[in-house]
Design goal:
The protein is mostly helical and 120 residues long. The protein has five helices and no strands.
């Protein structure tokens, strides 16, 4: 069976959509917020923990679902500690993009390169 590029791309897209649904249903975002709360006493350590979470979650999900799922959960913690929301947002997006690189783009490109090309 020969898979086309379109089939692989749609499969990857569906997998990410399903992963974002699963994260929402399993309430993983609430568990992440509970994980970050003990570090709320120190702004620097909290930012490091949140950025590590952003990189890890960014390897599994696209940037848009990650932002839509985690930002409403993490923003109250960030505001409570006194971190500037714009500063947090910029760093969160950068770390999400870093996390997206290895598993997202490179992995998909490597998989697409292995497929036999169809002409016509």
């Amino acid at each position: 069976m020969i898979l086309s590029y379109k089939t692989v791309a749609l499969t990857i897209k569906r997998g990410r959509r399903d992963a974002s649904w699963l994260i929402t249903v399993a309430e993983i975002s609430q568990q992440i917020a509970a994980l970050a709360k003990p570090f709320a006493g120190n702004q620097t350590i909290l930012m490091i923990v949140l950025m590590i979470i952003g990189v890890i979650v960014g390897t599994a999900l696209d940037m848009t679902p990650t932002i839509l799922i985690l930002t409403p959960i993490l923003m109250p913690i960030v505001k409570q500690v006194g971190i500037d929301p714009v500063y947090f947002g910029v760093l969160f997006i950068i770390n999400n993009a870093i996390g997206l690189q290895p598993a997202g783009r490179r992995g998909a490109q490597r998989g697409l390169r292995r497929l036999p090309r169809q002409h016509g």
